[in-house]
Amino acid sequence: MNSSLDSFKRIGISKWLVESLNAMRIDTPTDIQRACIPEILKGRDCIGGAKTGSGKTIAFAAPMLTKWSEDPSGMFGIVLTPTRELAMQIAEQFTALGSSMNIRVALVVGGESIVDQAITLQKKPHFIIATPGRLAHHIMNSGEDTVGGLSRVKFLVLDEADILLTNTFSSDLTTCIRRLPPKDKRQTLLFTATVTDQVQKLQIAPKPNGKPSLFSYQVESLDNVAIPSTLSIAYLLVPEHVKEAYLFQILASEKYLESTAIVFVNRTATAEILRRTLKHLDIKVASLHSQMAQQERTNSLHRFRANAARVLIATDVASRGLDIPQVQLVVNYDISANPDTFIHRAGRTARAGRHGDALCFVTQRDITRIEAIESRINTKMVEFTDVHDTAVIRKALNKVTAAKRESLMAMEKEGFGERRKTQARKKDGKGFRI
């Protein structure tokens, strides 16, 4: 066996799983895998922090699969994650890694048949990859035959834990965790690109009888790894009412005409308006947001990954964790109130040593947000000068305005609107005890 394979074997991974990793051309553990896998195999709870693309999924999947193969019975592990797309990606990785061992993986997310999911859960899959809302629905409504096995799981993973441990997910996450074995009867693994105060302060119960408890590892502080040297960051002062025209002019410019780009917005309606407007203007575009049916979301990702669309308009569903191919340009069409969100959005480009551009559209209302981002990343943005006001007005404004008008009329006719909240989220000022 060669030395690269031996390195995975040395940190305790089962031989069959080493061979599966080799078949996937994954030979050498990353820093977070090398640090966390042996400690998880010792039975310790774990908080693992590392930037997107550092191999966090295998850092928790490999030890879980190794332990499962020693006693392959019942519902063994649950992975909770904030978005359907990320859940689908993790489920695919578990399935691929465990294919030689007849592993059963259930994907439990919104947008899919509840009945089909309940039937799958009744068959006691070994691993459940889920979003908290849909798993909570099954716990509350699908009966003991469906969710009874949850009381015996050995592992709970919170992936993108900093997002899950916010008020948005608090009620559903609490419902899920209450159905699991108590803290001292399972291992709890938290992985995140941002180790927030809420993650650091998380209270994980010590193991009884002197067993090792919490292991915490962060590859580097986020401040050191957030902005790679290959990333160029710029801002463009834009009047609110002509943002679409500037975006089109940039995407159609000589510099970016062949580039793949992700355009981040804060609202689903904005994403839909931009998608339709750019499509009218013959830009190959796809979108990704929560108002889309699950199949449409999946198709959009496939189109973007296959270069059938070179521009993806997305809410922050796409800012975290997803395996998206090389992206040359990230446009912050709307500026997030959270500076860390900028870091995750910008992390979609300039990966693996490649160059990338991150551009911020700045309106009068965004100045304080830009200042907060610059303070967070300890970098001053430069002004973007490749598109000038007169060029935008002369070349783009009239046709973009007409395309936007058509888009808005079509959306109104189709009744497109924001999805209503189905339940109020409870606030928990004391944090989670998991």
Can you put this structure into words, describing what you see?
Its EC number is 3.6.4.13. Residues 249-393 form the Helicase C-terminal domain. With 434 residues, this protein is α/β, with parallel strands linked by helices. The protein folds into two domains: 3-224, Rossmann fold, CATH 3.40.50.300; 226-414, Rossmann fold (3-Layer(aba) Sandwich), CATH 3.40.50. It contains 19 helices and 14 strands. The strands form two sheets. It has a seven-stranded parallel sheet with strand order 3-4-2-5-6-1-7, sandwiched between helices. The longest helix has 18 residues, at 397-414.
Secondary structure blueprint with pairings:
Elements: H1 3-10, H2 15-23, H3 31-41, E1 45-49, H4 56-70, E2 77-80, H5 84-97, E3 105-108, H6 114-122, E4 127-130, H7 132-141, H8 144-147, E5 155-159, H9 161-164, H10 170-178, E6 187-192, H11 197-200, E7 214-218, H12 222-225, E8 231-237, H13 243-251, E9 261-264, H14 268-280, E10 285-288, H15 294-305, E11 311-314, E12 329-332, H16 339-346, E13 356-362, H17 367-377, E14 382-383, H18 389-395, H19 397-414
Parallel strand pairs: 1-6, 1-7, 2-4, 2-5, 3-4, 5-6, 8-13, 8-14, 9-11, 9-12, 10-11, 12-13
Helix pairs in contact: 1-2, 3-4, 4-5, 7-10, 13-19, 14-19, 16-17
